[in-house]
Amino acid sequence: MRSRSGSKSAEPFIDGVAKLLTAIDEQKLPNVKLRRGDARDLIAQFADASLDRVFILFPDPWPKTRHRKRRLVQPDFVAELARVMKPGTKLRFATDWADYADRALWAVLSDERFSWTADRADDWRTPPPDHVTTRYQEKRLGDCVPVFLDFVRA
Ligand SMILES: C[S@@+](CC[C@H](N)C(=O)[O-])C[C@H]1O[C@@H](n2cnc3c(N)ncnc32)[C@H](O)[C@@H]1O
Hints:
The chain is α/β, with parallel strands linked by helices.
């Protein structure tokens, strides 16, 4: 998540925190705030219209039907995103699990404050020019090619 004061990231697992700290150190990034915890708790603390950009890149897919309620992108979370994002800013969701792509698209577009920027299939099949390939993406563990869904917050 990006705001005027820099990037903010939440990570619930200690090994993920360690990897992020190492990357921040190696790349000498001066403007990253990292919090160990759940992104849903973090976002609840943000002021209305305070974020310039949100990336949700390859979130845990929870592919088993009985686990899907654990997925991050759900209507309640989308409503919180709409609250904290500034008008006109972008949300990107990427996954390589087809069912998660379908359900995330439905969840985001169910909130009338978001619109999908895609005009044709290449817009979601091709990595956007500003996308940085992630470690999980490279593992190709999903059941479809990566899809990139960009939305604009009205
Ligand atoms: C499949 S990994 C992908 C990591 C990275 N985005 C990538 O593409 O390489 C999912 C990541 O999301 C984190 N995560 C899962 N649920 C989360 C939540 N509710 N809040 C914050 N982070 C979460 C996990 O700890 C893990 O680091």
